[in-house]
Every structure is written in structure tokens, then in C-alpha cells.
Amino acid sequence: MTLLEKYQLASQQNMALQPDYKCHQFHIDADVMVVCAYLDTLADKDQIQKFMLLPLLDLHFEHDWSSDYKIAKVRDRLSGVPFTVESTPEKLIVSLTDGQCIILLASHHEAYICDVAKFKHRTIGEPKSEKTVRGPAEGFNEDILTNVSLIRNRVKSPELTFESFEIGQLTRTKVFLIYMKGKASEARIQTYRDRLLSIQTDAIFESTNIEEWIEEREITPFPRLLNTERPDVVSAHLAEGKIAILTNGTPYCLIAPVTFFQFFVSAEDYYQRSMYATIFRWLRFISFLISVYTPCLYIALTNYRQEIIPSSLLINLSAQREGVPFPSLVEALIMLVMFELLREAGIRMPTVTGQAISIVGAVVLGQAAVEAGLVSAAMVIVVGITAIANFVSPSFSFGMGQRIVQFIYMFLAVCLGLFGVFCGTLLLVVHLVSIKTTGEPYLSPIAPVIPARFKDTLFRAPWYKMKK
Question: Which DSSP string corresponds to 449-466?
Fold first, then answer.
């Protein structure tokens, strides 16, 4: 059985009923039958017409030419597009789903897979989740090769290396492991290479699917990988010797390893003066402390340590809580859950409507809850400050982690008061110190102390002091 017959049998089982499957059969000089097959929705029909069908239809054979010479002339006519040679019908079917076009010749044991893929994707636009006032406005899109070009446009070193992987038995998602040869640790590169190769799953649709496979299996609310949709951020981390992982079909790129203090860093810090960047970083760190400690300290003080509160303020708080039937913890949970619901509604609704729901809903519901006696006015203020501080974090995944810690602290405060808050702080520090990402301590460069890295943690030194 020839390769053409094997392919026709395989295509009848897998591709014949596909609405976008196209298969053209024609003869060259009534001598050689040719089959041209592709998926209409993935392949570039203009390239197929210009570089494959028309050149082959115009080809003429002499009677005294051998079959090998005829095959060589066919290959010459296909030189307008890159192609590879394949002899397995199963791989030909797989190539169709990649957007390739295959050319088969009757009585020939090999087929030609021509690269004419043309996938539809968004144009390069501004990052949606990492907006800046000053700096590049380009963001990744869902096409992995476009994202590669954005990185190469910024890092023109020949040491920039891309290793390709196909993950997912059904989706066969293309994944790139990116690093600077000579800067990134070879042991760390091998670690992530092995982790990518060890992924056994049917489908990969987003970088989060990769993240959960390759990160350490320790239980922690904090992310161990940084995700970004900015090519300038990825390029900067690559120049520092870190590793990036690009996944086809998503604009988010993973960066490893990452430390706790890097989640207080924004891309805009490097496009502002060092003094401004340092102030903003401290504001983000203070907002983290506010979001975590404000509700639990309010609960601990009002329930256990009223003597610490000034007398005039304590009288006002007592008057406000006089008609509230719930304890402080229930008050806080009601308001925080309400804010979370408003946040989710604002995200899921259309842009204009979502903003109106978030702002009007918070004001109206907060005021109505106070007037109805469900919560006190002080609790509305506390939860409002906490909610605002939650949104200061540049990383959405890190913001989710600090919300989890915030709820844990609230339960410790209602059970043990200030002692519970102090115990929670101690346990949090111990937990952060124990976390590592491929050998990198999570609290580096504070624990362990690495003075050389202090230039770019909670402080951002001027550029002339950061030559590398």
C-alpha cells in the first residue's frame, strides 16, 4: 500500500467529516497524480494558491525523464515555501491540525509538509493588567511567535535561547523555555526543563496550567512564579539571569525564580526617577500591611484590648455598635464578602457598567448596611481602607494571597486577640523564610542577607549605580 493510499484511509477516519478540511486532486501532465490537503481555517490559502497549486499545475514533464527527476522538479516548484519530508500518515494528519498543507504524489513513498499556517490573533496592544503612566505600551498577545518577536526586539544578544516543547496530548500546546545562556543557572534551567518534560496532561490552555505543574508543591497562599504580559518586564528579568516560560494561546508569560519583595515592584518603577520609585514601593509595602492587619487589629482591640483605644474614640465606637446584633468578626465578614462580590461583578460586567456597579454599589450598600444596623460605620471605614489597600498590589495573584492571610488573621484575632495576631505574624515570617523557588529563598535578599541586591528591593537605586 502506497503512502497516498494509507493517507486516504487515515483521512477518511479522522478528517473527512471536518467542515474546514479541503483536499484537491489533480494530475501533472496526466502523468503524476497529486493530492493537496489542508484545513481551510488554519492554512493561508493565498500561499497555497501562489506557491503550490499554480507552480505544480504549470509543471510539464518530458517523456524521457525518470521518476526521480520528476520528483526533483516537483520539489523545485515547492521551494517558495518552507517544507519538510514525512513518510508516516499519522504525522501527516497531525500536521494538518497545525495549519500545514501536505502534498502527496501517487506511487511516491514520501509526502511534503509545507509551512503555510496562518492563525488569526489580536494585534499588539497595551497590557490590560499592568498599565503604566510612562514606559512602553506594548503587550503580549495570544500568538507565541509574535511574543517571541517582541522579546527579540528588546534583547538582541545571540545568547538569548529558546527551547521548544509541545505539552498536552490533545492540545499539543507550544511552550518556550527562555533564558540567557551564560547568565541563567544551568542547574535551574535543567530543573525547569525536566519539570516541563514531566507534564502529563490532556490539555494546556493557559500559563496557569503550566504554573501549577512546575512550581514547588508546598502549600502557600503566595505565588512562586511571576506572571506578566509586558515584554519589557520579561526582557529585564532575562537580563538578570532569570528564566521565562511562554505558552501559546495566552498573553501571560511566567518568570522564575521570584522573591517576596518582587511583588511590590511595578514596571513603571524603572521609568521614573529612583526617588519616586522608592516611595511607591514603600507605599505598596505599607498597603500590604494595612490590608492584612487593619481588620484583625480592629477586631482584637474592640474585643479584648479596649483600654488601648482612646476614651473618646471608644465611646463613639460603643455608641455605633449599640444596635448592631453581630460580633465584630461577623461584621467584617459581611462587609469583606460584599466587597468581593462587588469586585467580581465589576470584573465580569461590561467595562462601563462594571465601574458603575463597583462604585455605586459600595457606597449605597455600605450606607444601607449602617442605617439598617447590620454593621457599624467604623467597620465600613475599616473594610473600605482594607479593600483599597488590596488593590495597590501590582500582581493580581499576590493580592489574592494577601486576602487569604487577611482572613486567617481575622480568625486568630477573634480567638486570641492581639496574642493571636502576634502568633500569626511569627508563623507568617517562618513560613516565608521556609519557601524556596528552585533554590532561591523567598525572602531574599533580606533572609539570607545579600547586600548587593539591596539596590533593587524596597529601594530602587539610581541607574548609574546599577550597571548590571
Answer: T-GGGTTBSSSB--GGG-
> Of how many residues is the chain composed?
468
pLDDT tens digits, one per residue of 128-154:
888 888 888 889 998 898 999 999 999
Report residue 402 CA to chain centroid gap. 19
What is the C-alpha to C-alpha distance for residues 43 and 52, in angstroms, rounded to an integer? 13
Q: Decide if 376 contacts 320 (C-beta within 8 A).
A: yes
Whether the model clears a pTM of 0.85, i.e. scores above it, the answer is no
The candidate with the shortest Cα–Cα distance to 376, out of 428, 298, 433, is 298
The pLDDT of residue 359 is above 70:
no
Please provide the DSSP assignment of 321-386 as one string.
GGG--S-HHHHHHHHHHHHHHHHHHHHHS-HHHHHHHHHHHHHHHHHHHHHTTSS-HHHHHHHHHH
All three cell numbers of 418, joined, read 492581639
3 state DSSP class of 467:
coil
Distance of CA 352 to the CA centre of its chain: 25
The one-character DSSP state at 16 is T
